[in-house]
């Protein structure tokens, strides 16, 4: 009898040692996972900071280009106003020049006629000549003085006009280049957004169908300009008409939210995931679908789920229970088949 008790005691000690070794390995594994999670968290935070800096730099450059565009637009308006004024001055000078040329031509004709008349007269009539002289003097007074500087002024205006026109062409070329750059930025922004949206929408439809057996999809409120509106979530549960997620019940919203989160994680898959009671407000059939989905995902990555529902626990490869002893949490770990055998 003593020998049997000694053997049982020895076996219990060996079992305790094995459990201690298992617990020690679990602690080391948990520490390793915690360190890996800490590193990945730090890398993610750093990546977010870098993206934030890049975005801020891009927005700064865009604001600078927009400011330059506004300055050029103001300068173009001023130049356009001066161009119109120069055009008016040029037109006035051309009209005035034509008038002066006509007056000069008329004066030459009159002088030519007077010269011929003088040669044809045999004798000079002093009285008539005096009257003719007075008449010509009065007629000359009626004519405006010819501006001798008009040609030079006209040439200067033409030169200024050409200089301004060249500057306008340069500014317009710069303006078009900036507008093309802004258009390219807007196009790239829309392209990247639509690529990301389409991937998330495709993943959402897949996960929602697996969870519920129904259909769910994402719809952009303003397809022509997606940045002017939002994104609406449409849900069609089995046996129900499609409707917006805004009018869904609490349990239905929980299912849609989980499907959307899984769709987002599909963009950047991780080594493992932790889900803390995401099925708390789900109906039983949706919790069962979620457990099946987690089982499928576990083939590609590690899934840690905290749940109080049997339909989720029964799909686990390994179950870890937590209970309280003397104010301290204790862990018990077992495989599902062991739990089933023990009842």
Describe this structure in words.
- The protein has helices at residues 2-120, 126-142, 150-212, 250-265, 284-297, 310-313, 336-342; strands spanning 215-220, 231-236, 243-244, 272-276, 302-306, 318-325, 328-335.
- The protein is mainly α and 343 residues long.
- Among the domains are: 78-188; 269-343, P-loop containing nucleotide triphosphate hydrolases (Rossmann fold, 3-Layer(aba) Sandwich), CATH 3.40.50.
- Strands 1-2-3 form a three-stranded antiparallel sheet.
- Helix 5 (284-297) links the parallel strand 4 (272-276) and strand 5 (302-306).
As a whole number of angstroms, the C-alpha radius of gyration is 47 Å
The structural class is mainly alpha
Shape: rod-shaped
Distance separating the two termini: 32 Å
Task: Assess the beta-strand content as a share of residues.
Answer: 5-15%
H/E element order: HHHEEEHEHEHEEH
The side-by-side strand order for the widest beta sheet comes to 1-2-3
Q: In this structure, how is the largest beta sheet organized?
A: 3 strands, antiparallel
Unreliable sequence segments: none
Number of DSSP strand runs: 7
Helix proportion of residues, in percent?
55-70%
């Amino acid at each position: 009898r003593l020998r049997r008790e000694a053997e049982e005691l020895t076996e219990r000690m060996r079992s305790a040692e094995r459990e201690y070794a298992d617990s020690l390995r679990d602690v080391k594994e948990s520490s390793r996972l915690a360190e890996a999670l800490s590193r990945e968290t730090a890398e993610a935070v750093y990546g977010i900071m870098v993206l934030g800096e890049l975005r801020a730099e891009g927005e700064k450059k865009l604001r600078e280009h927009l400011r330059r565009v506004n300055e050029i637009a103001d300068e173009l308006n001023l130049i356009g106003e001066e161009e119109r004024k120069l055009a008016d001055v040029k037109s006035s000078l051309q009209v005035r020049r034509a008038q002066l040329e006509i007056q000069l031509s008329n004066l030459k004709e009159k002088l030519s006629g007077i010269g011929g008349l003088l040669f044809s007269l045999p004798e000079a009539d002093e009285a008539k000549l005096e009257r003719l002289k007075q008449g010509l003097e009065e007629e000359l007074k009626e004519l405006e003085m010819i501006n001798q500087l008009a040609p030079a002024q006209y040439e200067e205006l033409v030169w200024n006009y050409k200089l301004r026109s060249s500057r306008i062409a340069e500014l317009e070329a710069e303006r078009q280049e900036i507008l093309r750059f802004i258009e390219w930025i807007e196009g790239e922004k829309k392209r990247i957004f639509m690529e990301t949206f389409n991937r998330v929408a495709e993943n959402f439809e897949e996960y929602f169908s697996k969870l519920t057996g129904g259909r769910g999809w994402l719809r952009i409120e303003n397809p022509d300009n997606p940045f002017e509106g939002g994104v609406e979530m449409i849900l069609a549960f089995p046996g129900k008409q499609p409707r917006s997620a805004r009018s869904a019940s609490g349990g239905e919203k929980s299912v849609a939210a989980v499907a959307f989160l899984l769709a987002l994680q599909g963009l950047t898959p991780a080594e493992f995931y932790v889900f803390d009671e995401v099925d708390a407000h789900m109906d039983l059939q949706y919790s069962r679908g979620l457990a099946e989905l987690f089982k499928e995902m576990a083939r590609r990555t590690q899934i840690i789920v905290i749940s109080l529902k049997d339909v989720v626990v029964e799909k686990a490869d390994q179950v870890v229970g937590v209970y309280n002893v003397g104010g301290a949490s204790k862990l018990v770990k077992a495989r599902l088949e062991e739990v089933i055998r023990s009842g």
